[in-house]
Specification:
Pfam family, one: Amidase
Shape: globular
Subunit structure: Heterotrimer of A, B and C subunits.
CATH architecture of the domain at 4-258 and 442-493: Alpha-Beta Complex
Keywords: ATP-binding, Ligase, Nucleotide-binding, Protein biosynthesis, Transferase
Helix content: 25-40%
Active site: 80, 155, 179
Order of helices and strands: HHEHEHEHEHEEHHEHEHHHHEHHEEHH
EC number: 6.3.5.7
Bound molecules: asparagine
Radius of gyration: 21 Å
Structural class: alpha/beta
CATH topology of the domain at 4-258 and 442-493: Amidase signature (AS) enzymes
Number of strands: 11
Distance between the termini: 14 Å
Length: 495
């Protein structure tokens, strides 16, 4: 039999349903694997052996009593450490929240508990989800299981590395500017940012609320669809949650991967200069395969995408500066009193924030505070909002011509540690292809499309669809998955 950790989540689910495996055995397998291998990767910040095994045993017992369970019941999952789980440490990879145990569950967590998925633990990220390499974690970087001298992407590098290395069959991430898709691309996993509002953000520690979205990290498109089906749906606790029932994504991909007559647009602005040759080669080859499979391919112009990154680096920090104001050393999290002088609220706040936040978080708070200040507000934040509208209009026009858009997910494969940490612009540019979807609120995902010819590291292909058309995006991605030889991470073969 294929090793448990190399099976997809749905294969595991089928074996649990058929009585070939117990959740206790599966969960123990993953926990033991984390114990044995995660010293190499640092994908997990917290492992909840007792909690995960308690859920697993409960599910096994309920199954043995003949109860009807959720399809994914008993299949373990890992959660990015910016999702709150009642009583479980939640740090956002920041010293600011070290030791904090939330008093409530995020809506997605409540759904996961209700469905009976054992929660293995919390995964590493760039501090407060700010970064593209997981190098900004206060608890050390996560390493890419394909090559531990390289980054696993970010901010959700921990979830992506855990799934790539078979330390968890499923994980959740959050995507503000690419934090699910870019780690997916560079670790050879599937990463999905659903339509804004499709998944409740209640209990996701906010980075930039108009951009943040929770989504699945998996090794197959079908697993991602099943997980998105589980966590989506209206939630009155999130004012931006979409009304009405969510589409059944699992059913929509079951129709089969047929590309005949599907109009696919290649975004002109996302490719070419600044993109690694080995990435472009793999992307172009996949486009040819799509054409051969019956899709109509055309180039689509999205001229305002050229300004998306600049707009993001005003809108996102502006929202960050507001959202992170709650970490004031008074209410929860780290409290540092000034070494000398009076202990006033302002001085405690300054000392706590100075000690608790890392450089990148401070940089963004300062940038955002400036962008929102009187005198420059219109020139910076106001202008960025206008660009956001123009990006949305580009997409409306594009989706008038084609059904989906595609691009490389990231301009490069996983880079080496330290390679971009001194050159912020090149770090930020790694999100150049993923940011437009967040600005527009549309769904986008990354599906593996092979290894780059120049460094043999995984390449991701991004599929973008109109808002609310997550099902269409999944159908096309399932077709791409069936055309491409999925790269298997060597770490997955390790026992
Ligand atoms: N949360 C994200 O999507 C992170 C993105 N790479 C950023 O640094 O803003």
């Amino acid at each position: 039999m294929t090793e448990i950790h190399a099976l997809s989540a749905l294969d595991l689910a089928d074996k649990l349903a058929a009585g070939e495996l117990t959740s206790e055995a599966v969960t123990t397998h993953f926990l033991d694997r984390i114990d044995a291998l995660d010293t190499n990767y640092n994908a997990f910040l917290h492992v909840d052996r007792d909690g995960a095994l308690a859920t697993a045993r409960e599910i096994d017992e309920r199954r043995s009593r003949g109860e009807t369970l959720h399809r994914l019941a008993g299949v373990p999952i890992a959660l990015k450490d910016n999702l709150v789980v009642r009583g479980m440490p939640t740090t956002c990879a920041s010293k600011m929240l070290e030791g904090w145990r939330p008093p409530y569950d995020a809506t997605v967590v409540a759904k996961i508990k209700e469905a009976g998925l054992p929660i293995l633990g919390k995964t590493n990220l760039d501090e407060f989800a700010m970064g593209s390499s997981t190098e900004n974690s206060a608890f050390g970087p996560t390493k890419n299981p394909w090559d531990t001298t390289r980054i696993p992407g970010g901010s959700g590098g921990g979830s992506a590395a855990a799934v790539a290395a078979g330390l968890a069959p499923l994980a959740l991430g959050s995507d503000t500017g690419g934090s699910i898709r870019q780690p997916g691309a560079v670790t050879g996993t599937v990463g999905v940012k659903p339509t804004y509002g499709a998944i409740s953000r209640y209990g996701l520690i906010a980075m930039a609320s108009s951009l943040d979205q929770i989504g699945p990290v998996t090794r197959t498109i079908a697993d991602a669809a099943a997980l998105q089906d589980l966590i989506s749906g209206h939630d009155p606790a999130d004012s931006t949650s979409l009304p009405g029932p969510a589409a059944d994504l699992t059913a929509s991909i079951a129709e089969g991967p047929d590309l005949t007559g599907v109009r696919i647009g290649v975004v002109k602005q996302l490719g070419g200069e600044g993109y690694q040759a080995g990435v472009l080669e793999r992307f172009t080859e996949t486009v040819e395969a799509l054409k051969a499979a019956g899709a109509t391919i055309s180039e689509v112009d999205c001229p305002n995408f050229d300004y998306a990154l600049a707009a993001y680096y005003l809108i996102m920090p502006a929202e960050v500066s507001s959202n992170l104001a709650r970490f004031d050393g008074m209410r929860y999290g780290l409290r540092v009193e000034p070494a000398e002088g009076p202990v006033t609220a302002e001085r405690v706040m300054a000392a706590s924030r100075g000690a608790g936040f890392g450089d990148e978080v401070k940089r963004r708070i300062i940038l955002g505070t400036h962008a929102l200040s009187a005198g420059v507000y219109d020139a910076y934040y106001g202008a960025a909002l206008k660009v956001r509208t123009l990006v949305q209009r580009d997409l409306v026009a594009a989706f008038g011509e084609v059904d989906v858009l595609i691009s490389p997910t990231a301009p490069t494969t996983a880079f080496k540690f330290g390679e971009k940490s001194e050159d912020l612009m090149s770090m930020y540019l790694n999100d150049v292809a993923t940011i437009p979807a967040n600005l527009a609120g549309i769904p986008a995902l990354s599906v593996p499309c092979g290894l780059a010819s120049d460094d043999q590291m995984p390449v991701g292909l991004q599929v973008l669809a109109p808002a609310f058309e997550d099902a269409r995006m999944y159908r096309v991605a399932a077709a791409i998955e069936s055309l491409v030889d999925a790269p298997v991470c060597p770490a997955l073969k390790e026992n």
